[in-house]
């Protein structure tokens, strides 16, 4: 689906995104997460963007973590930044999530809306 690049989410965009998160195929979800996490819209996720994502996910989900957000971010880049340029392309992000269970789990938890839907 298509998002307007106006900096706002209208109702139909919201419904489309919610539907995708709840029922979309894994690759569609990962592609949507990538666009969401690519804060500056340059087509890549850099360490700073990923670090902020990990920190936000941990703040929302709570719990104890064996590694710091910085260590986790570095580990993700070591594993899935295939060309070593310090940025994750869409392909690296999708492939990396598919191959790296820990990263996939974190990405899926980041927008797990099942508890919200259960309350509705």
Automatic annotation (TrEMBL):
Q: Which UniProt keywords apply?
A: Calcium, Metal-binding, Repeat
* CDD domains (alphabetical): EFh
Superkingdom of origin? Eukaryota
Answer yes or no on keyword Cell wall biogenesis/degradation.
no
- Which stretches are annotated as coiled coil? none
Q: Where is the EF-hand domain?
A: 25-60, 68-103
What's an example of a GO molecular-function annotation for this chain?
calcium ion binding
The keyword Calcium belongs to this UniProt entry's keyword annotation: yes
Family matches, as Pfam families: EF-hand_7
Extract the InterPro entries matched here.
Answer: EF-hand-dom_pair, EF_Hand_1_Ca_BS, EF_hand_dom, Recoverin
Question: Do you know which PANTHER family this protein is assigned to?
Answer: CALCIUM BINDING PROTEINS (PTHR23055), EF-HAND DOMAIN-CONTAINING PROTEIN (PTHR23055:SF164)
The protein here is known as GUC1A protein
